[in-house]
Design brief:
alpha+beta; two-stranded antiparallel sheet; 4 strands
Length: 101
Amino acid sequence: MSLQAQVIDTETEQVLFDRSSDIPARAASVMKLFTAAAALETLGPGYQVTTRVYQDAADPSKIYLVGAGDVTLSRTAINKESVYKKAPKLADLAKQATAFL
């Protein structure tokens, strides 16, 4: 594992720290941290992503689950784990939703 970083004082533009910043690196992990921090700041620690359930008006025996925004929602089989521990599974949500029909 290697570290590439650069810290710049935004007022003076002075480089305060530099370690291999000229070497291209994958920034995905860092961007995930920034995204998570921004979401936490904007949405708050109690925010929960909503999964909507729609019933087909023409055929009430059909339902539609829309998991917009929930990155942990998984199509993984009920007896299998996804990469996210205890992630919600579509099959579980479908069972819960049909119980209310």
